[in-house]
Amino acid sequence: MLFVAALGREGGDMLSPKAWGVSPHNAGAECSVLGSVMVRPGCLDIVAAMLKPEDFFDADRRTIFEAMLSLRSQRKPVDTVTLAEELQRFGKFDEVGGVAALNELLETVPTAEHVEHYSQSVREDAIRRCLIQQAVSVAERANSKAGLDELRPMLATLAESVIDIDETTNRASGGKDSPTVAGGFVRFPVEALPWPLDRFITEATDSLRCDPCYIASPMLSVLAGAVGNSRVVKLKRKWSEPCLLWTVIVSASGTMKSPAWALAKEPLDAIQSAAFAEYRQARLQYDQAKQEYDAAVQEWKRSGRQRGDAIPLPLTEPIAKRYLVDDLTVETLAPLLEQQPRGLTLCCDELAGWFGGFNQYRSGRGSDVERWLSIHRAGPITVDRKTDHQCRHIPRACISVTGGIQPKVMSRVASNPELRDNGLLARLLVAMPPRRPKQWSDADVSEEADAAYRHIVERLLSLDFGADEHGNPVPIVFSLSPDAKEKFVRFFNAHNREQSLLGDDLSAAWSKLEAYAPRLALLIQLVRWAAEGYTPATTSAVDEQSMDAAIVLVKWFANEAKRVSALLGNGDDSEESRRRRLAIDAAEQHGGRLTVRALMRSRAGFKSADDAEQTLNALVAAGLGHWEQSSPGKSGGRPTTVFVLVESASDPAHDSDATPSPNDRTSTNSASGEASSVSMSDDAAARCFASGRLTRFNNV
Q1: CATH code, 40
Q2: Across all residues in the chain, what is the average pLDDT?
Q3: Are 468 and 287 spatial neighbours (Cβ–Cβ below 8 Å)?
Q4: CA geometry: angle at 123 spanning 118 and 128, to 5°?
C-alpha cells in the first residue's frame, strides 16, 4: 500500500530533514485513522476527542481530517461521496489525490476496532514533533545568549506541551467510555507567570512546603482585583472581558490553605491597613472641622444671614479607600462599589457562607445569585433598600473573589442543582491539591521577593481610567495583537471541540474557561508592565507571550476541573464518595502508588482489606487508576498488586508505607510474578519537569 504515494505531500512547518532527518510520524497510523472513520463513521467522535487537524504530519491527510470534522459539525454522514463533496467545497479535492486517494484510505483498514490505538500513535508523534521544535528553539535562543525573560514564554509553551502529554496519556489509560477521564494532580505551572511572581510563589511554597497553587490561585485574584475596572480586553466589537477572577482552593482543615492564602493577600492587606490609617487621620481632621463648620453655620443663622453673608460651604466627608472586603452580601457591598469605581476583592478564608447566602431570599427582594452572575462579567447591578428607601445602581460591579472551602462542604455545594443550572459553579477556577503532612522548613520568603510582589500590586492599583462624555470613569480598552489573536483563535476552536464531548456540568465549566483565557492574558500583560525592568510589555495590547502563558494556566485549571469533578462525584456526599476521596488522597501522598495494606495503614479509616480493595476497585472502574504487578523485594516473597493513580504527578519516591510487603495481597491470575521494567521515558521526564523534580529553569 503506497500511503505516501497516494497522499504524498509531507507538509507543514516541521523541522527540515537536513537538521533532524525525518520528523517523528507514522504515515500508516495517520491513514489508518482516516480509513477507520470511513469504515465506521461513528468512531469519528472518539478520534475528534483525541486528535486535532494539526496532529497530522501530512498536509493532505490533515485536510481530509478537517473535511471530516466539518461534516461532523454539520451532522452529515462521512463517506466517500460526502467527503469528496466537502473537499470540493474546500477547493482541495484534486490536491489531496481525488477519488483514488479516498478509495485507498477506505481500503487501508478492514475494521475500525483499533482506531484508538492508531489515534494515540498519531497524537504521540505530534507531541514529539512539537517538543523537538520547542527544544530546538530554546536551545538556539539560549545559545545566542538571549535574556532569561525572552526564554520564559518559550518555557511556558513547553509547560503547555507537558499538559498535552498528560492529557494524551490519560486518554490512553482511562478506558473507552470517556475521553475526559481525570488524571492525577499536576503541579501548578508557575513558569508561565512573570518572574517576580514565580519567585515569590517558589519561595513561599518552599517555606510552607505546599503546592504552588495554594499561593498562585489567591494571588491571581488579588492581582486581578488590583486591576479591576481600569482595563478590559476587547475580542470583538460586542465581546470584551474584564480583569476579574474567581478562584477557590478546596482543601481540608489543617492543611496549609490558610497560611498560603494569607501570604498571597499580604500586600493588599498592608495597602488596605495604610488606607484605613489615612482614613482615620482624615476623619479626625474632618470631625474637628465639622465642629467649626457647625458653629459657623449657627453664627450665620443668628447674624450672618441678616448681614447678607454667604452661607459657609459644606465640608466633603472623607471616604475610606477599600480594596479588600469580607462581607458576603451584595446589599452591603453595593455602597462600597458605588464609592470605589475600580471594584473590590472579596477574600474569605472560608467561602461556605458565600455559597450559603445564594439561596437566602431577603424580605422578598430575591437572592443574591443573579447579582453575582452579573458581577462575574463586571455587569450592572441595582440594589433597592427598603429600610432607607435608597436605590443604588452600579453600572460596572467588579469583584474578584478568592478563598477556600473544605471538600465535604464543596461536595454539598456541588450537589445544589440551582447553582449548577444557573452556571455559578462553572464560573469558579477550582483547585484541589492533594493533602500532605505538614513539615518544618527553615526556608522563608526573602525581603526582595516580598518587595517585588508588593510593588506589582501597588503599580496595578495606580492604573488610571478613561472617561466617557460625562467625565465618568470607564475602562481603558486593550486589544489582542495579531499573533495573540491567532493563538487565542486556535485555543478557542480546540477548546470548544473538546467541550462538545463533555457532560453538562463540565461543558458549562468549559464555556467559562474560554473567557478566562483573555482575562488571564490581560492580567499577565499588565503584571509584566508593573514589573518594569523584568520584561518588556506593551501597555495597549495583549501580546503573544501573555496569551501563551494564559492558555497554559487555563489548561491547568481545566485539568483541575475534571479532576475535582471526579473526586467530588458531582456533588455526591455519600460515604462511598468520601472513601473514594480519602483513597485518592492517600495514593497521592504515597507518590501515586498504593497497596491495599498501605491504604489500611493510612488515616483514611479503612477497617478491613476487603473495604480498602473495594474502594480501589471502584477507582479503577471510574478510570482514575489501574492495577500493576510489582516484583518481590530483595527478601523474596510473592509479587504484589499495586494501585497506580492515573498520571499522578506526585513524587515518585514511594513512602515507606507504600513499599509492597511480602504479606500484601497478590493477584491470583498473573501468569508471571515479574513486573514490567520502568524507564524514564521522554513523557515521564516531561512530567517530572512539570512537577518540579528537574532543575528549575528560573534558578539558572
Answers
A1: 1.10.860.10
A2: 78
A3: no
A4: 125
